[in-house]
Amino acid sequence: YWQFREAVLGIGEMCRALDTPVTGGNVSFYNENTQGAVYPTPVIGMVGLLEDISHSTSISYKNTGDFIVCLGALNPTLGGSEYLKVIHNLIKGPIHNFDVKSELDVQQLCLYGIRNGFIKSAHDLSDGGLAVNISESLLYSNNNIGAEINLSRKIRIDELLFGECQSVIVITINEENLYSLIEKAQELNVYTQTIGRVTDSGNLKINDSVDLSKDNLKNAYFGSLEKIMQS
User: Whole-structure pTM over 0.90, yes or no?
Assistant: First the structure.
């Protein structure tokens, strides 16, 4: 019940900040399976209105040569991450700090870029961290689209690839529009970082740690549930 209370308080705080009403949803307090209890899960179902269809922005990369840019500070941590749970069977913190104003500023910058036609794709950094974020964008892009990421951090490679953090959106943008976006980012005091480029290799390359074909990514991403059910 404490977890549920804290979740609802957090939802309420963010909805007030975003001026977003919640008109419906579902809560499960008691879920059990043979392995034990399932965490209490407040779930919100929401819809939005896109007033200009030209502003529809998907996660798929569009053009080779575009820059891949992080909006917001990329400071990943393994605490509370999917990687820690799936690979190491651990559910523990500390988790990444969340700041409401930083989240609002990052969203405002992203919306500015979309409405001005700068941003070609946008994908929030969430479950699975950076490696999963980039992989998902590639999987929904044209077959020859690839990505090359060059990013150095004084952290372990698993934390860089699979660590999670709040208030980061990974976007792609043409080089000629990058300056305009950075100007707006400085106005909003949002940290930005160019981390790579869209390529025509059809592969995912991250530093010297990852070099995978799109076929391998597809098998892992779209075929995993079937393999689990068959095992």
Answer: yes
Q: In 3-state terms, what secondary structure has residue 11?
A: helix
68-86: per-residue pLDDT in tens? 999 999 999 999 999 999 9
Q: How far apart are CA 69 and CA 180, in angstroms?
A: 13
Burial class (CB in 10 A: 0-12, 13-18, 19+), 127: middle
Structure tokens at 151: 């990013």
In this structure, the strands spanning 41-44 and 119-124 are: unpaired
Beta-sheet pairing, 119-124 with 169-173: antiparallel
Closest CA to 81 of 35, 40, 129: 129
Q: What is the DSSP string of 207-229?
A: TTTEEEEHHHHHHHHHHHHHHHH
